[in-house]
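Progress note, sequence design subtask.
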């Protein structure tokens, strides 16, 4: 177990180190001139002003030297100063990250709570009406563009039926709960502010459903395929021959041995939800990392783009490490590989 853990953690550290190089190179190949984006044509026409701006943000240095400055800052927890907000990038990330974590977690919980049971039912009742419904929902969820689905849901439930709250984490007149974690649902519970808790949950419903649509389809399909494969194995036939009920066979044997592909996809899906909520956050005016990333890209804000891209890489490496470690708990044979 110790050797397995050391190997996986070592691989994660190496991947993170390589990610800093790739992220830095990619971020510095973004098309556009930050001078024009931030200063405008009039200010950019002043050579002295442009030189001062480039020196302030190290844009006048050679690429290897800029990378070394980036690494030195990274070691001390400094991701640089945002050109657009004039604040440390790390401070911006800390400010916007809780909203994205709350939205992504809600979407992920919905995906698991609906997708796994639906996938199991579809596998057990193969080619029945519930199997056809599950496959149809999976196809629609995976195929529907996020921005289109977000506009439709917002137009129908907020604009048309008026049974859902508008965009944002809370109503414009509502006050956010005292900050503990930055997650409004948790902070409302800590403050025992049940009115704000209800409002926060209501505002989470539509964006989390939209964000969960594609992930729900993938989890449903993966669960169905994994359980179907398990149901065809010899140990399932042996369990049935022993007189176990069908659902005991499915839950205790088939589903238990189908967890590895479900955990693999689920972990990667959660990473994707954390890092790919740009469209959903933009349409629903959700003040998270997705909107911050979009604004940084439009403003050609190199430090912010670099910090966000590095965060995305670290999230994927960390979740892949958690997935690898979970394999040892789900299947001890992995330790011998």
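Output:
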């Amino acid at each position: 177990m110790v050797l397995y853990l050391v190997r996986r953690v070592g691989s994660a550290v190496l991947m993170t180190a390589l990610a800093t190089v790739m992220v830095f190179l990619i971020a510095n190949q973004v098309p556009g001139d930050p001078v024009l984006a931030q200063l405008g044509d009039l200010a950019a026409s002043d050579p002295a002003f442009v030189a001062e701006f480039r020196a302030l943000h190290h844009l006048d240095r050679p690429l290897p030297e800029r990378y070394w400055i980036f690494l030195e800052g990274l070691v001390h927890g400094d991701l640089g100063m945002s050109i657009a907000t004039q604040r440390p990038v790390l401070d911006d990330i800390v400010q916007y990250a809780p909203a994205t974590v709350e939205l992504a977690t809600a979407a992920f919980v919905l995906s698991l709570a609906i997708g796994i049971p639906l996938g199991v039912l579809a596998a057990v009742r193969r080619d029945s009406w519930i199997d056809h419904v599950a496959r149809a929902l999976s196809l629609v969820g995976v195929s529907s563009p996020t921005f289109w689905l977000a506009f439709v849901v917002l137009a129908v439930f907020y604009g048309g039926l008026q049974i859902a709250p508008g965009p944002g984490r809370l109503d414009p007149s509502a006050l956010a709960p005292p900050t503990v974690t930055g997650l409004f649902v948790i902070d409302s519970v800590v403050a025992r502010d049940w009115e704000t808790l209800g409002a926060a949950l209501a505002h989470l419903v539509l964006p989390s459903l939209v964000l969960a649509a594609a992930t729900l389809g993938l989890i449903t399909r993966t669960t169905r395929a994994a359980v179907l494969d398990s149901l065809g194995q010899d140990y399932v036939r042996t369990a049935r021959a022993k007189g176990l009920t069908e659902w005991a066979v499915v839950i205790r044997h088939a589903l238990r041995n189908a967890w590895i592909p479900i955990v693999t996809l689920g972990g990667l899906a959660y990473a994707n939800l954390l890092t790919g909520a740009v469209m959903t956050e933009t349409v629903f005016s959700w003040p998270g990392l997705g909107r911050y990333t979009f604004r940084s890209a439009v403003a050609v804000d190199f430090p912010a783009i670099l910090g966000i891209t590095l965060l995305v890489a670290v999230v994927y490496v960390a979740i892949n490490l958690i997935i690898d470690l979970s394999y040892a708990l789900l299947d001890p044979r992995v330790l011998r590989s």
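The CA atoms of residues 244 and 337 lie 32 Å apart. Work on this subtask will continue into the next period as scheduled.
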